[in-house]
Amino acid sequence: LALAAEFGWETANAAIEAVLDGAERQTRAVIAEWADGVYHGEALLDDDGRGNEDIHIRATVTKSGSNLKIDLSDSHEQVTSFINSSYPNTYSAVVVALSYLIDPDTPKNDGTFRPIELIAKPGTVVWANPGAPVTLATNHCGQEIIEAIIKALAPACPDRAMAGWGRRFRIAIQGQDPRTERPFIWHFFQARPGGGASPAGDGWPGGGEWQAAGGIKFGSLEVTEVRFPLFFQRHEFRPDSGGAGEYRGGPGGIVEMIVETADPAVGNTAGDGVKHGACGILGGTDGAPHRYVLYSGNSEGRPIRTKETGMTIRPGARLVLESGGGGGWGDPAIRAPEALVQDVASGFVESGGAPYPHPNPPPQAGEGALVAATSDTPPASAFENGRSR
Asked: What ranges in the chain are assigned the alpha helix state H?
């Protein structure tokens, strides 16, 4: 309104259209450099929480000139749980995928996404009919839509495509704090999953989830312990969780914690990724999936599923929450030897540790001239990278 008042509506509207047109030109210039063709990508959700597994998102992307036709109509039929997506959410996920593939300094506005034609089928998980549950859609299947599209387009623009990031997996604990006798609800946001690798380098450690463009900010453990009846025994990076590649996926995290309530608490979860880890790309391997385990008393730990309600958490129970790593980018066989040394020195990779399938295992300290630990400036220690020993 201020612009219109100063310059008039005609000039203000013309300026807005110029911004949109400029963003479209920048985007089309990038897309035009990619190889024309028809490309296919698929991503799988673990399950819908109702007994159906491997819920597929399939993208067929036709690239012609500076246009992209993205067809998601072969995706899984809609389900009865909250992983369905509405059409607006699906469109948002599609444009997020494109945003990852174009120049970061290109404005993100309506003009940016004019080159996209989206095709989807009503009654599928990517366009559920009215009345279907869609509560988790921004995360899942939002992330899998992004993954399927980028996997499809990776051969067309390998210098821009990145590997998958770890998926969302939240646990919420509800109970009573014995110190105050007041109810509490705590949501797990620590130990974020690893970011995906790209041609620019290794994935971010604990980078967060793909659909949210990461999530590296969370509350301190010390403040959490003051506010909630929880005691954290460990908070560190998870070794061997990032997918292997010319560039390695970022490691996920580990939290080990004790629930210090006087009465049983209740846990609920929402998310995905204990079966399917973050996708590797262009020869890179997948990141390790999540692994959450609940230990009560002397009993053996039992895995925590991604879609549980009413889970009993007894006083003194211990939770070990290991988040997944990011996917690897490119052929692991051509990863730089000095990078392999640094992986071990940082504690991100342990010698011979699965799932890091490298044809030449990372050398140990003292095994050659490339060992960074013998230099005057030691490599970043595991402690400096946030991993305690």
From this structure: 2-7, 9-32, 87-101, 142-153, 221-227, 337-346
